[in-house]
Amino acid sequence: MRIEQKHIDQHNESLLYTHIRKFNFIKEDILNYELVLQKLMAFQIGIPSWALGTGGTRFGRFSGGGEPATLDQKIEDVGLLHALNKSSGAISLHIPWDIPKDIESIKQLAASYGLKFDAVNSNTFQDQPGQQYSYKYGSLHHVNPAVRRQAIDHNIEVIRQGVALGSTALTIWLADGSSFPGQLNFREAFQNTLESLGEIYKHLPEGWKMFIEYKCFEPYFYSTTIADWGQSLLLANKLGEKAYTLVDLGHHLPNANIEQIVSLLLMEGKLGGFHFNDSKYADDDLTAGSIKPYQLFLIFNELVDGMDLNGLDHATGLGWMIDASHNQKDPLIDLLQSVEAIKIAYAQALLVDRKALRIAQQENDVIQAQEILQYAFRTDVRSLLAEARLRSGAALDPIGLFKELDVRRQLTEERGVDSIATGL
Question: Phi/psi zone of residue 296: left (φ > 0), alpha (ψ -120 to 50 degrees), beta?
């Protein structure tokens, strides 16, 4: 299914009067609103191929109709998102869930939707059919060199697939860890992981990056071999200039100051990118901005400040991707909500009066510093985002048009009620 431009134009026409009124109201208070709009139009958020189906829980999966059962259909779904918001212009493949059978055909299909291929992701947290060795007790940290070699070779194959697709980054998340004291020698597990990553690192092409993800717990509950940003940074520094830390917003202990982590990683030149989601208790993988919107804004406040200080382009300097589960929502609507929340936080961060904030910080003016940040956070920037979409040829109200066109019903009619996406 493709959304035709005429449907978007008709939709926008019906909302244009109200939009213009709201946009004219906010732009009066933003001196550089044209620059903000250009940044919003350029900012793209990658969609992972595993997020297009109804995600599961630990206890079950309640699939919805019309899920994309093939890679072609997943690209089609990301194309639908991008047509609606013009902010979802990249798809991130997870190997081996989504291995292209015909690379050139897949690239042409993606290009027809205006999509590029983001970072490719390896998977050594599951055993695959026909796999010689199990990852039950880990992969890159495993005590058996043969298991480590199998996991290394898989990552090298993922790089090869990524090169063919035009990707320029490899994301590695390990489930490796232990559930009971004494099960692992921590130093040996870390050293094995470092050596395994080193073998993979040697195969990174020129211009590529390795994103090393971390997680404080789960699926193991006593230790995780790459448990926090410090351990990821330690590995990245030891590996070399192509290795970076990747921050998943749900992969921290409760109440961790993620914005401070982001600031320091940027300072060290070792922040690779983000997996966006939200959480109430742990790694809940909820819709971005649905639980802690102020935290998301504070993270973007540090991102904008640090990226500007380091001369990084906001759109291309880091990797931006959603990593969420949609076990109770239509996944496409959930992704539209996440993209909107991320861009709202980004837009609000662009409005922060940085000169005034710097003065307040230097004068230890705690009250003024808070006022400056909260003024930006409380600014309703939705009409700015809508104007950026309008100028890009997207829908003023992406979710409204999705419902108006009855997209899920059409997808279900095309693919069937029992069509199930690959992934968790």
Answer: alpha
Whether the full predicted model's pTM is greater than 0.90, yes or no, is: yes
Angle at the Cα of 182 from the Cα atoms of 177 and 124, rounded to 5 degrees = 20
pLDDT digits (tens, 9 = 90+) for 253-272: 999 999 999 999 999 999 99
Token pair of 11 as six digits: 């939709």
Burial class (CB in 10 A: 0-12, 13-18, 19+), 319: buried
Helix residue ranges, H only, 44-173:
71-85, 103-112, 145-165
What is the residue type of 166? G
Alpha-carbon distance 411 to 282, whole Å?
33
Interatomic CA distance for residues 163 and 153, integer angstroms = 15
Helix axes 103-112, 71-85, angle to 10 degrees: 20
**For residues 156-180, average pLDDT:** 98
Please tell me whether residue 116 adopts helix, strand or coil conformation. strand
Contact 283, 326 (CB under 8 A): no
Q: For position 55, what pLDDT does the model report?
A: 78
Sign of CA dihedral 212, 214, 218, 220: positive
Please report, for residues 182, 220, 251, the alpha-carbon distance to residue 279 in angstroms, rounded to integers and kept in the order given: 31, 19, 10
3-state DSSP call for residue 406?
A: coil
Element (H, E) at 247: strand 243-248
Question: What local confidence, expressed as pLDDT, does residue 58 receive?
Answer: 65
DSSP alpha helices (H): ranges in 28-129? Answer: 33-42, 71-85, 103-112
In the chain, DSSP finds a helix count (H) and a strand count (E) of 15, 11
Element (H, E) at 339: helix 331-350
| Tens digit of each residue's pLDDT (9 = 90 or more) over 34-87 | 999 999 999 999 999 999 998 766 677 788 899 999 999 999 999 999 999 999
